[in-house]
């Protein structure tokens, strides 16, 4: 029970910080402002986190952690590469729309992350791209896909989906589900063998 309470309190701090980092930027958001958002004290924040930069890392790594976890699960699943690619693209698009604020904060605030934190997020991004590239390799070897360079294609696909954070607005013309479906169809057309 104690661990659950600690996790709940840490999560509340992270959510409040994420909102403020998104609205005002990392440099303009103080630990006092995070505490005020939660109607608590600075000491409360520091009893759960060593520094504001640690909170920034937790916020920024959310998208990469979820995306890699999902990609690893899909890569272990049985199924032909076309189905795996479709699942991966739909899932990744949903992660980006779900974690839109954390992705935007990472893009804007990467310069404020500790080198070890940047390295960890980039390690996850590379691992995700490797899984995507592996699915493309397998599909290519089976004659399902036709791409010139699977690693470059994987990076282009993940970059395209990552960038949706900058323009996607839930509740407008396109829902998160429709975006995932549209993206999956587009990627399948990009890589399918003629």
Automatic annotation (TrEMBL):
Coiled coil: none annotated. Residues 7-67 form the HTH tetR-type domain. One of its GO terms (molecular function) is transcription cis-regulatory region binding. InterPro entries: Homeodomain-like_sf, HTH-type_TetR-like_transc_reg, HTH_TetR, KstR2_TetR_C, Tet_transcr_reg_TetR-rel_C_sf. Pfam families: TetR_C_24 (PF17932), TetR_N (PF00440). The keyword Transcription regulation applies. Keywords: DNA-binding, Transcription, Transcription regulation. Residues 30-49 bind DNA. PANTHER family: HTH-TYPE TRANSCRIPTIONAL REGULATOR BETI, HTH-TYPE TRANSCRIPTIONAL REGULATOR RUTR. This is TetR family transcriptional regulator. It comes from Chelatococcus reniformis.
């Amino acid at each position: 029970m104690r661990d659950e309470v600690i996790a709940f309190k840490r999560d509340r701090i992270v959510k409040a910080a994420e909102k403020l980092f998104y609205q005002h930027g990392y440099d303009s958001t103080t630990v006092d402002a995070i505490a005020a958002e939660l109607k608590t004290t600075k000491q409360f924040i520091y009893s759960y986190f060593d520094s504001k930069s640690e909170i920034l890392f937790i916020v920024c790594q959310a998208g990469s952690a979820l995306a890699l976890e999902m990609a690893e699960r899909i890569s272990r699943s049985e199924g032909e590469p076309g189905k795996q690619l479709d699942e991966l693209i739909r899932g990744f698009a949903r992660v980006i729309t779900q974690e839109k604020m954390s992705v935007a904060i990472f893009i804007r605030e990467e310069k404020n992350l500790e080198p070890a934190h940047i390295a960890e997020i980039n390690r996850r991004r590379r691992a995700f791209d490797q899984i995507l590239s592996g699915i493309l390799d397998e599909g290519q070897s089976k004659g399902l896909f036709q791409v010139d360079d699977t690693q470059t294609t994987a990076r282009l696909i993940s970059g395209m989906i990552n960038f949706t954070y900058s323009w996607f607005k839930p509740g407008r013309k396109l829902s998160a589900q429709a975006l995932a479906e549209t993206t999956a169809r587009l990627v399948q057309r990009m890589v399918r063998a003629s």
